[in-house]
Design brief:
Layout lengths: L1 E6 L5 E5 L4 H7 L2 E2 L13 E5 L5 E5 L9 E5 L3 E2 L6 E14 L2 E7 L13 E5 L5 E5 L9 E7 L6 H8 L5 E8 L12 E6 L3 H13 L6 E7 L8 H9 L4 E6 L9 E2 L2 H8 L7 E6 L1 H13 L7 E5 L2 E2 L3 E2 L2
Parallel strand pairs: 1-6, 14-15, 14-18, 15-16, 16-17, 18-19
Antiparallel strand pairs: 1-2, 3-7, 4-5, 4-6, 8-9, 8-13, 9-12, 10-11, 10-13, 20-21
Length: 324
């Protein structure tokens, strides 16, 4: 059995199978809705569902599974090529400790296989208990024979405090990619502001290195927020980009120690201090969901068009494990 999904104020309709989410049905039909976690936590896919009385109620479209024909009012919907994802058995190639609580995991794809993704997107790791973990790809798309993941350690985390400890070079992990609407848009010439907290730096790294490879001329500023300086686990790389003129790097610490002379406070507020109006910019924000939510509200209030704000909120899986 299937149901018809109609998009309000448009001529778009598509079918949704019984038990299928509206988000999955839209992708299958070749339409893109905003989303991030696909777990019903981050609220990025929130949109209206119009009931029989014509009243629009807010709902998470990754969770809505219709039992009748329904009309939706998403924040945005775009015609897109149908998503083609690959499930692959990737081999652990390198494990490196970037900080006490961050591991950089490099996975090598099978011989002759390339990963097609856009800078900023993420993959899913399928675990033996049939659960999945989401991790952003930190390498740019042209490095397509492997994927680099930045894994933040969380006490009790199923992957970061369990599976990761048992990994060794040569061990295989089942992955599926690509996922995510958080990717760099080429159809704009606006200056770009990148905002990251914690391992939200991973997809930002992919975006910046992709822009460098393609010699894009758009001005870029990177604001990376953390508690302490040691949490900026690849700050030397970001400073190298800065020194070479690729991106202006502004680290922001909320709880600095010692003789820190840089910016302090909350990272999205640092952006606003430098840019009272964001009407002419495009923003990519990635990391803690409290940051991405606060940034969306504050930046759009400062003139940023809603459709120029792109985010990936790193939410928790279950009660312990961060999604990225």
């Amino acid at each position: 059995m299937s149901y018809q999904i109609k998009v309000a104020a448009s001529d778009i309709t598509f079918d949704c199978n019984d038990g299928e989410s509206v988000l999955d049905a839209a992708e299958r039909a070749g339409f893109a809705l905003p989303y991030s976690c696909r777990k019903g936590v981050c609220s990025e896919c929130q949109g209206g569902v119009i009931n029989a009385e014509g009243i629009s109620e807010k709902a998470l479209l990754c969770c809505v599974r219709p039992s009748a024909n329904v009309t939706i009012a998403p924040r945005k919907i775009e015609k897109r090529e149908r998503v083609v994802r690959k499930k692959l058995d990737a081999s652990v190639f390198r494990i490196a400790q970037a900080a006490p609580d961050v591991t950089v995991l490099q996975l090598r794809l099978p011989t002759g296989v390339r990963a097609k993704f856009r800078a900023g997107q993420y993959l899913q790791i399928h675990l033996d208990d049939e659960t999945v973990r989401n991790y952003s790809m930190a390498n740019p798309p042209h490095q397509s024979d492997s994927v680099h993941l930045h894994v933040r350690h969380v006490a009790g985390g199923r992957f970061s405090d369990g599976v990761l400890k048992e990994l060794a070079v040569g061990k295989k992990l089942r992955i599926e990619l690509p996922y995510g609407e958080f990717f760099f848009r080429d159809d704009s010439t606006k200056p770009v502001i990148l905002v990251a907290t914690g391992t939200g730096f991973a997809p930002v790294k992919s975006i910046v290195e992709d822009a460098i490879k393609r010699k894009l001329a758009r001005p870029m500023k990177l604001y990376w927020g953390a508690r302490r300086e040691q949490d900026l686990y690849l700050a030397d790389l970001a400073r190298k980009w800065h020194d070479e003129g690729h991106v202006e790097f502004i680290p922001v610490l909320s709880d600095p120690e010692g003789d820190w002379a840089g910016r302090t406070g909350i990272v999205h507020r640092a952006v606003l201090a430098d840019h009272p109006s964001l009407a002419a910019h495009q923003v990519y924000a990635c990391g803690n969901p409290s940051m991405t939510s606060a940034a969306r509200d504050a930046f759009t209030s400062a003139g940023l068009p809603e459709d120029e704000f792109f985010c990936d909120a790193f939410v928790q899986t279950g009660t312990l494990e961060p999604a990225a």
